[in-house]
Amino acid sequence: MTTPTAEPDHRWAEKSPDPKAWKGRKGRSRRAAAAEQDAAAGGADRRWVDLGDGRRARASVDLKLLPRTRRIRAYLRWSDKGHSPTRYLGEVHHATRAENLAEGWRLAFAQGLVVPPETVRTSWAKSPAVRAVMRANKARDTGPERRLRSLLHKAGLRYRVNAKPLPTLRRTADVVFSAVRVAVFVDGCYWHGCPEHYRPARVNNEFWRNKIEGNRARDRETDQLLTDAGWTVIRIWEHEDPATAARLVQRVVREAAKTPQPPRCVGPC
């Protein structure tokens, strides 16, 4: 009679892998670490994860050795509003760290955790760094907008957010007081060409100069169209103190509620 033997447990490695298979070089710079990730992913534009709401974050693959099983696991990590989400990708078994990082990225691609590079290459930006700055300058619900809205709400004012003052005009204001015809725009310093903080682009300068000048012209046209339609326009730069801006908006709205005011433009119009 043959005695049955147990099948080997493949979850356990016979010996620990060489540290070169998973450990990063000690004392390496942040730039060197980023270059290592770029090479493993197949390019810097292949390392983005989608956070939702139009936001993205640059991800990295981490390699960890599990002491008990003596196996290497790959994880995808990124940063989101002070948090560091982690997603387990799977085990990797190559002899070098570079091969294991590349395997980790292949797992991330296969699991659909990474944004396809084609969606990033459609950007006007010339580099990932410029793309990151452009994404930081959101079109709506920016930090200055939210702070202003919070102060206005605490003051007892009610309003519409990201709405068209005129239904027939394809222009959206950040805060709209329809009853008194007051439209508030919180302008980003970069996209609207703030005279204090805007700095011309060093790369593709002519394109960006025309782009910003076009935005300025559109702002002037919007102000004129709304004023002609009987609206009061308030423009606030994102760098302005939100408390001061909120007091200005309160004063204009409450004056308009008391007595009819002639249409005008308040701020950098």
Could you characterize what this model shows?
The chain is an alpha+beta fold and 269 residues long. It is 35% helix and 20% strand. It has helices at 30-41, 97-110, 117-121, 128-136, 143-154, 205-228, 242-258; strands at residues 48-52, 55-58, 60-66, 71-77, 86-92, 160-163, 173-177, 182-187, 232-237, 265-266. The chain has a 5-stranded mixed beta sheet with strand order 6-7-8-9-10, sandwiched between helices. The protein starts with 29 loop residues before the first helix and ends with a strand.
Q: In angstroms, what separates the terminal alpha carbons?
A: 96 Å
> How many domains make up the coordinates?
2
Structural class: alpha+beta
Architecture of the largest domain, according to CATH? 3-Layer(aba) Sandwich
Strand order of the largest sheet: 6-7-8-9-10
Beta-strand content bin: 15-25%
Helix content: 25-40%
CATH level 1 name of the largest domain: Alpha Beta
The biggest beta sheet reads: 5 strands, mixed
The number of helical elements comes to 7
Give a count of the beta strands, DSSP E runs of length 2 or more.
Answer: 10
Radius of gyration: 27 Å
